[in-house]
Amino acid sequence: MFFEREEGGNSAVLVHIDFPDESKREDSDEFLELVRSAGAEPLALIRGSRSSPYPRFFVGEGKLEEIRAAIEEHQADLVLFNHSLKPSQERNLEKELGCRILDRTGLILDIFAQRARTYEGKLQVELAQLEFLTTRLVRGRTYLQSQKGGIGLRGPGETQLETDRRLIRARIIAIQRRLKKVRLQRETSRRARVQAEIPAVSLVGYTNAGKSTLFNRLTDAKVYAADLLFATLDPTLRRIELEDVGTTVLVDTVGFIRHLPHKLVEAFQATLQEAAEATLLLHLVDAASHERDDNIAQVEAVLEEVGAMDVPTLMVFNKIDLLEQKPRIDRNADGLPERVWLSAVTGEGCDLLLQAINERLAIKIVKGVLQLEPEQARLRAGLFNLNAVIEENYSEEGQCQLQLRLPQKDFRQLLSQLSVLEESLVWVTKP
């Protein structure tokens, strides 16, 4: 991060408060996973319940004393809250408890900072961190309000706080400028795929649903996969070959989480745009999770925010090895695949997933028996060059009859090259 806070250890006291309001409620088990993913050492979990947050400390006076006692007992370095705190609440808590305070948003940002590997990912994380920091500068250092002094720096001048804010603003502008260039490059690549009519299939889902494991299984890639939240942060693209579709791009994206900080959604807009402009979304779900339905709703909320709800979606229920389930494809009333049940770890059902993707994308396939006259030899040769001919026969009149199967785009491109009108063709069996 551009501005580092004081050094400290990773031993932490955790605070989780239950609220009756569903919009403020968080999952304590998920909180423990976040803490583990960040590399912190949880020493104690302080739980409580309130009807609403206390304006000054978020928690009440009694709970504050309980947190203070836990810090002293365990010699903790920081306190982690499973909630978003106001800057004033963090400042008040640090003053009262005498140690570092980090809320849920700051914890997620820290995990993102550890996971970012690519140039774009690091820029996106730093942008989100700086925008998060701007509202909290006043509590970063006790001397920020003092004016500069010393030789050449006397007079009215500007406070250290103003200097830091100015430097942060300049850094944010510089990062936004660099990200704009990266986004233009990404957009150029995306347009090239569209022009080449190469379908893009994006893996989306709740964090730790198994997206990277499935991605590696389907593509033989070496993407980092671990039983940690946000193990993957940077998008990875690989080409796969499907029988009826041909070359297809598979995209592994960042995982979603409940109450994903809005600044992170904004910062990762370019990355999430891969989902919004995909041909097909694979919504990966942890079938063994107790929060399965809620996780699906959280992912759909983020997809709606980035404008991806209208993209055709295939639900993929992963981790059936933890359940008494067999791999299968569930179909809708039209016979199209709607859900696939599989295990990315064991590979069970992955062949069914490829079959389902093939069926969902292979809508524009030319199939049938085409009859050609002797003077259409160039068209016959072109079809053979495309490996589109399954079988060749001749009629009693000596006409060539080709049983075809090929993508419609390749077929139309060949007809255009040879200046052949599609309406002039004679089909023995209609495609």
Task: For this entry, give a set of tags.
431 residues, alpha/beta, Rossmann fold, 4 domains, seven-stranded mixed beta sheet, four-stranded parallel beta sheet, 13 helices, 21% strand, elongated
List the helices and strands and how they pair.
Layout: E1 11-18, H1 28-38, E2 41-49, H2 61-74, E3 78-81, H3 87-97, E4 100-102, H4 104-115, H5 119-134, H6 160-195, E5 200-205, H7 211-219, E6 236-242, E7 246-252, H8 262-267, H9 269-276, E8 280-286, H10 292-305, E9 313-318, E10 328-331, E11 337-341, H11 350-361, E12 365-372, H12 377-385, E13 389-394, E14 400-407, H13 408-417, E15 426-429
Parallel strand pairs: 1-2, 1-3, 3-4, 5-7, 5-8, 8-9, 9-11
Antiparallel strand pairs: 6-7, 10-11, 12-14, 12-15, 13-14
Short description:
With 431 residues, the chain is α/β, with parallel strands linked by helices. It has helices at residues 28-38, 61-74, 87-97, 104-115, 119-134, 160-195, 211-219, 262-267, 269-276, 292-305, 350-361, 377-385, 408-417; strands at residues 11-18, 41-49, 78-81, 100-102, 200-205, 236-242, 246-252, 280-286, 313-318, 328-331, 337-341, 365-372, 389-394, 400-407, 426-429.
